[in-house]
Amino acid sequence: MTLSASPSETDLDAGSDLAPVAGHASVSGPRQDGPLYQRLAAQYRRVMTAGALKAGDRFPSVRALMRQHGVSLATATRVCHELEDAGWLEARPRSGYFVRRQRGATLPAVAEPETSALPAAAQYVGLHERISAVIAMQQRYPDAMNLGGATAAPALYPGERLQSLATKALRREPALLTAVGADHGHAAFRQAISRRALSAGFTVAPADVIVTHGAIEAVNLALRAVAQAGDTVAIESPAFFGLLQILESLGLRALEIPTSPRHGLSVEALELALASYERIAAVVVVPNLQNPLGSIMPDARKAALVALCARHGVPLIEDEPYRELADTPSLKALKAWDRDGGVIHCASFNKVLAPGLRLGWITAGRWQARVAMLKFAQSRHNETWPQIVAAEMIASGAYDRHLAQLRTRLRAQREACADAICRYFPPGTRLGTPEGGLVLWVELPTGVSSQRVFERALVEEGIRVAPGTMFSNSDRYAHCMRLSCPAPFSAAIDDALRRLGALVARLANAAAGD
Amino acid sequence: MTLSASPSETDLDAGSDLAPVAGHASVSGPRQDGPLYQRLAAQYRRVMTAGALKAGDRFPSVRALMRQHGVSLATATRVCHELEDAGWLEARPRSGYFVRRQRGATLPAVAEPETSALPAAAQYVGLHERISAVIAMQQRYPDAMNLGGATAAPALYPGERLQSLATKALRREPALLTAVGADHGHAAFRQAISRRALSAGFTVAPADVIVTHGAIEAVNLALRAVAQAGDTVAIESPAFFGLLQILESLGLRALEIPTSPRHGLSVEALELALASYERIAAVVVVPNLQNPLGSIMPDARKAALVALCARHGVPLIEDEPYRELADTPSLKALKAWDRDGGVIHCASFNKVLAPGLRLGWITAGRWQARVAMLKFAQSRHNETWPQIVAAEMIASGAYDRHLAQLRTRLRAQREACADAICRYFPPGTRLGTPEGGLVLWVELPTGVSSQRVFERALVEEGIRVAPGTMFSNSDRYAHCMRLSCPAPFSAAIDDALRRLGALVARLANAAAGD
């Protein structure tokens, strides 16, 4: 552990107020301009790149930085934030900052959005054709390496265990396929969900759990319960394309709120929008491992968001398909801060337990009766057998063991993919560093169109990616793409990312030559 | 076979123009007033009640009636229609009329609706609370004998075969529960449906089959594709309460079109409505074994309905959960007459194959792309497993064998229940005689409220029925109820119907005493 790590004297600009600190070899670097905190952060980056501060090392405390460099509290704090934002440091609660796992080479973090300007006015969503075109084109190349999805490879889910439980249930319950199921869900499954909600920081009675066909149906029901065609719904930007399709299919307008790749929806931008625009019928948020950014809202932001929506009387719909894939277990749901039933919680087992069970659920606070009515009218109860299987996975502890393993694997896959992207993608690329899940958000160099990358990667390289154009009703993310890491890292994946990086480099060069 | 059966001379009114015919014993009866055809029909009823004409006997032809009674063609034809409407005769194509199976005692057929008056203007549906109250009350008596549903008992479905196919599929396909399924449905299942549609009189390419969560989701998607909140939708009256709930949940208005217990939706009443009311966004019909009436539209009516809707450019949505439960196999769907893609066909395997698979499908003609989009946005693809099981049932021929058996059983159950109702229910009761399925529509004696029967039957007798108030947005069917025959007839069912009949008799007496 290196408590006093700092750049050596030779790295510091002449005339700076930064004092040298002993204990590290000199790391040479270019002379820098810009504000003091940026210059100091750049020096520390070089120290870390050179390996003088290694992954897992404790980073100097703010007080140590103040003392060692003779800088103000504000400057020292900004140095830490700057390095954290760029993915060099991670904050651990009550322990300070630590150096994150180093990469062979690094790419800067994806840009933070502007949050102090008023978000652009809401628009009707007209995205379905664009998304359908992408999906139709994907389907013409079914053998492409799939780095465009958001679901882990089948081998990462507990297939044998699930099939064995399903087979046993079929043997044990002769009327499993021939009897009508229970309204709103199977008792044991609703019980299991009720117990499990405690780890997300809230309580829900089994009777208030309504089982759905994935979180997709849950979010549909939530929106149908609180909004009418023509209404405006505030969503994250970028957002999961499935949400945009739901809004389009319901004739709702999307108000895209800037969202940080690190800490999620900008509460301040939402506040501005709520104060400026007429009536916002609902806010839809993925607070944990946002798709496509992978951001996680810190607790303070979650609390502020719930309070803001409560103050304005706006229903807050949270979509939680990924929470249990976070590196840190037991993240809290927004529902944990709900005091007046204003939060509608939607969750799914598709990504975390089994894509083939198509199980989700909803608990809808003040709109519980209306959501129950809508679900009954829309598709009746879910099949019983997937609920029995999932309930037994949860009750036996097998689900928790599976999750621990899945998290570890996804982290390894994600970090190996990120390393490869850093190695192979050209300068000008920026990369998100989510703390869980299996997707990475990539900003491409200036002038490179993700739609172009998508098409050429599929046709020429046999690689499927998700172009940024899918994640907004605007063209705001035409230069971004979502890359996923669904399977254990392999030479084939390494090679695919190498070829993808080369393609991006060619397109970047062509754009620079225009 | 008795070709020349007719009432004997003594049964005929003095001064009538009806000539006696030899061959039958005199059957005494009260002197009758009313038009000639009614008096003649009444005489034939007495002949049949006395057993002089027995079940299966050929009824005199129209020409024979004309000759024997010296009546006009119009009168002779009306006699046959009157007796057919009342359930005494059945028409067999190209063979004339035959005496239906006689009952120990008979009840008159449920009344035919008035079809020449303009249907009442469309109303927003506000039925959910009424239906919820019924369902909630049912749930407080879970052990009641269930004569209120529309699904056969689990034992009537091929449970063992289904579970065995499911188990084999689980063993054979290791990623069955862990892989994402195919958009819009599993290929083998869509293929099986495509082949099977031929027996309903139409062709559909596998690519145009969209698999849904039962017909409920299919009808939802169909209505969402063609109508907006506030629009008017023409439906049958009485209608399946689930359809009324769908309309309510989508903010649609219901225009209730008179529907015959024998031959379904009144095409003439619909035509009147289309000519008189502003814009009807869609027509929803259950052409085969309508729920709750059990009516089957004759082919000529089906053709006329499709042509009428095509002429007016109104989307025609057909809901087909029951067709394959008809006594006559291979009834045609409305889709068989569709020439311009104006018919949206919705079907389900819940009632015919397995309530626990929750499988339905839709093919949407001109609205195919929109329905595909809505389904994707609403709940994505269905689970793969049930589709594999159903596809294998169909492909192996096991489904057809099951259906043949199920039809026979349901017919026996239905007729035994109808007999019991005839034995036990008081005068003033009228009873439908559907040619398939498992539900019977019962009109109660004057002054008897079906809601009252429902409540007292449940609380006092432990019997669940479906009150007529569930089947219309109006109170038009407050004096009707739907009784189902889900299980093989037994002493317990006989006893339940006896007690139910006694309850109705007590309520009828009380009403008469008011």
Automatic annotation (TrEMBL), chains A, B:
Superkingdom field: Bacteria
User: Keyword annotations for this protein?
Assistant: Aminotransferase, DNA-binding, Pyridoxal phosphate, Transcription, Transcription regulation, Transferase
Give the family per the record.
In the C-terminal section; belongs to the class-I pyridoxal-phosphate-dependent aminotransferase family.
According to the record, the residues making up region (Disordered) are 1-34
Keyword Membrane listed? The answer is no
Taxonomic source organism: Chitinasiproducens palmae
Domain HTH gntR-type, first and last residues per copy: 34-102
Tell me the protein's name: DNA-binding transcriptional regulator, MocR family, contains an aminotransferase domain
Q: Note one Pfam family from the annotation.
A: GntR
Its Gene Ontology molecular function terms?
DNA binding; DNA-binding transcription factor activity; pyridoxal phosphate binding; transaminase activity
